[in-house]
Write a structure and sequence with these properties.
By secondary structure, the chain is mostly helical. It contains 13 helices and no strands. The longest helix has 47 residues.
């Protein structure tokens, strides 16, 4: 190994040491912040594993005659970053899961590039641990513990069902239905409150109620539409980023990716033999393997993602429809009669929207409808009373 290769090796191992020490401090800090005993113990174990990896790299650097670097990060690691403090531990663990994915890809590439037997032996040990960390973090994020292994016949049935589901690849039900229902809900609730409040303040003056109600309707529709668009777009961008990371991991080390996916299915209950068989079937096409890895990380597929413009249009239009209902009587009436008619049709609409929510929930239509009606009635009474008080000031 010439001097340039030796310098490259030392720089790579030093970078590995820094990354593992940063991981140690991150997991250690998160474990101290965790109140649930099992999760705290799991995070502490991850911290100790990262420290062990750092010690391995330190030992290899010493064997090569190179100094062990000084840790240049924070004592809280990445757990103390502004993004993680704002997002909470859930976001911090999600970032760590992505970091573990990148580490697996980076270490897999180093096995091919470093050309140092001692370092390669450490890399293989570390890679196996990082794959376990990836699975463990997924469990912590999704709040579930590894299940007991399934009986062979049950595992075989689950395997067959998973294969059939993958080969058919049927898309999920249209998500615009949910956007539309919740759009009507938001528009109706918000503008009913505005109409009630202005009616109370002006004793049902149609001119003022229409101005306030229509302005609120437009604002609510634009807000809901833009919010739905940005949410769907962000969800798609996250999926695409994860897909790109998984493709890179497969390109660098397909064997490691296959093992990782197999471990994922084993954690979910398949035996090692069935999981390996299933992964082998998926990996016949590399793109299928990438899709499976991305699906396991995000629990969705590209077909299941919302279309941004569809979400925006359905959200905006449905919000406008819901918002227009309480305003409608004031086009033809004024005063107390208009207030009464607006309240009646608005409460009826609340019941209809609540009943419609049962299409995407497991509750009965009448229970959901009555709950929505009660909430609307309380909202109308409160805002109308407040409006009366404001009108007398």
């Amino acid at each position: 190994m010439d001097s340039r290769d030796a310098q490259h090796l030392v720089e790579a191992l030093s970078s590995n040491w820094q990354a593992e020490m940063r991981g140690y401090h991150t997991y250690n800090t998160l474990s101290q912040q965790e109140s649930e005993p099992h999760r705290r113990r799991t995070l502490r174990q991850l911290a100790l594993a990262e420290k062990h990896h750092a010690d391995l790299w330190a030992g290899r650097l010493t064997a090569l005659g190179a100094p062990v670097p000084e840790y240049d990060g924070s004592e809280s690691g990445d757990a103390g970053s502004l993004a993680n403090r704002i997002g909470g531990q859930g976001l911090a663990l999600r970032r760590l899961e992505l970091d573990e994915s990148r580490d697996i890809a980076r270490y897999g590439k180093q096995i091919q590039d470093l050309g140092d037997e001692g370092s390669i032996a450490i890399l293989k040990e570390v890679l196996a641990d990082e794959a376990d960390h990836y699975i463990t973090l997924g469990g912590l994020i999704r709040h579930h513990l590894p299940t007991e292994p399934l009986a062979p016949e049950v595992a075989k049935q689950a395997l067959d069902e998973l294969v059939i589901a993958r080969e058919k690849g049927q898309p999920k039900a249209a998500s615009w239905i949910g956007d539309a229902i919740y759009g009507v809900n938001d528009g109706l609730g918000a503008i009913f409150g505005i109409v009630s409040g202005v009616s109370g303040a002006t004793t049902g003056n149609a001119h003022f109620v229409l101005i306030a109600g229509l302005a609120g309707m437009i604002a609510s529709a634009l807000s809901m539409g833009s919010g739905a668009y940005l949410a769907a777009k962000s969800e798609r961008e996250i999926y695409e980023a994860e897909f790109a990371r998984e493709r890179e991991a497969v390109e660098y080390n397909e064997a490691e990716a296959r093992e990782l996916l197999s471990l994922t299915y084993q954690v979910r209950g398949l035996s090692a033999e069935d999981a390996d068989h299933f992964v082998g079937h998926i990996a016949e096409k590399k793109e299928q393997l990438v899709e499976a890895l991305a699906r396991e990380r995000l629990h969705t597929t590209e077909e299941g993602l919302s279309k941004p413009w569809v979400s925006a249009v359905s959200g905006a239009l449905s919000t406008a429809v819901g918002a227009f209902i309480p305003v409608l009587p004031f086009f033809f009436m004024a005063g107390v009669p208009a207030i009464i008619v607006a309240a009646v049709i608005s409460l009826a609409a609340h019941f209809a929207v609540g009943a419609a929510k049962s299409l995407i929930t497991i509750r009965s239509w009448w229970s959901s409808g009555l709950e929505m009606t009660l909430v609307g009635a309380i909202e109308g009474i409160v805002t109308y009373t407040i409006g009366i008080g404001i009108g007398k000031l």
